[in-house]
Amino acid sequence: MMEGTGGPYLNTAAVTSPVGIARLLQMTFGCATFSLVAHQGGFSAAYGTFCMFVWTFCFAVTVFIIACEFTRLHSCLSLSWGNFTAAFAMLATLMSVTAAVIYPLYFVQAGCYPIGCQVRDFRIAASVFAGLLFLAYAAEVFLTRAKPGQVTSYMATVSGLLKIVQAFVACIIFGALVNDSQYSKYVATQWCVAVYSFCFVVTVVVVAFSVTGKTALLWFPFERSVVIYTFGAVLLYASAAVIWPVFCFDSKYGSPRRPGLCAKGKCPWDSQLVIAIFTYVNLLLYVLDLAYSQRIRFVSHI
């Protein structure tokens, strides 16, 4: 004889709530995007591979999240589920918008020659679905973000979401650094690389502890340490924001203008400019993070 349980085995709200519907759309748009590309659209080079990785990775993790919430298996995982889903939604938003820009930029053209009209149409369709995929992930971030006075996961707060953006921007900086940026030319620019690396590693560690829900096990006050680190990151990035442009664009050390003979895509000056821009972007993000961190409290078990 079967006994009644305290509730249904399946959580239908996982697919019927606004957040659940957004995730179903993510799964649908993601599948449509990489299927169109794989079937006829095609891709090549590192940027094409990156786009395919983004769409397949986000699709796989979204299916995993939906399955875990629908079957309630997420309660068996040693994760802070709210932090995990909020962090992934923000990361997927950034990755999907990047892919939605890169793919049409490199692969979509107005005419049919030389790829043929069918391939062109598939690429246009894939680009449209890539844009819809970004909107679906952005919708989840909007729906799950912390509201004033609400007790929620740290990664759902503005400060938590900014941590994901900071790490993502640091990855862009690293990509430009390895693209012949000539950072090893001066000790000062090597210091900037050390700043980028240190802040990236610590930010990832903060996210990892929040997602795994292990902050309460630490022997030091995690909340206070994160605020102190954020203040330190502001100072470190401020130093890089001064040093990097001086040693790259001052006429005494570098070039204030792009050299005329620099090949497109293989010019150190271009990489240096990208690094300078995103250094200022991350400095602003850390300043905002420091401001918002004064208004939140950590909840590690949600």
From TrEMBL:
<feature type="transmembrane region" description="Helical">
    <location>
        <begin position="226"/>
        <end position="247"/>
    </location>
</feature>
<feature type="transmembrane region" description="Helical">
    <location>
        <begin position="79"/>
        <end position="102"/>
    </location>
</feature>
<keyword id="KW-0472">Membrane</keyword>
<dbReference type="Pfam" id="PF01284">
    <property type="entry name" value="MARVEL"/>
</dbReference>
<feature type="transmembrane region" description="Helical">
    <location>
        <begin position="193"/>
        <end position="219"/>
    </location>
</feature>
<keyword id="KW-0812">Transmembrane</keyword>
<feature type="domain" description="MARVEL">
    <location>
        <begin position="14"/>
        <end position="149"/>
    </location>
</feature>
<feature type="transmembrane region" description="Helical">
    <location>
        <begin position="155"/>
        <end position="178"/>
    </location>
</feature>
<dbReference type="InterPro" id="IPR047123">
    <property type="entry name" value="MYADM-like"/>
</dbReference>
<feature type="domain" description="MARVEL">
    <location>
        <begin position="154"/>
        <end position="298"/>
    </location>
</feature>
<feature type="transmembrane region" description="Helical">
    <location>
        <begin position="122"/>
        <end position="143"/>
    </location>
</feature>
<feature type="transmembrane region" description="Helical">
    <location>
        <begin position="45"/>
        <end position="67"/>
    </location>
</feature>
<keyword id="KW-0677">Repeat</keyword>
<comment type="similarity">
    <text>Belongs to the MAL family.</text>
</comment>
<dbReference type="GO" id="GO:0016020">
    <property type="term" value="C:membrane"/>
</dbReference>
<keyword id="KW-1133">Transmembrane helix</keyword>
<feature type="transmembrane region" description="Helical">
    <location>
        <begin position="273"/>
        <end position="292"/>
    </location>
</feature>
<protein>
    <recommendedName>
        <fullName>Myeloid-associated differentiation marker-like protein 2</fullName>
    </recommendedName>
</protein>
<dbReference type="InterPro" id="IPR008253">
    <property type="entry name" value="Marvel"/>
</dbReference>
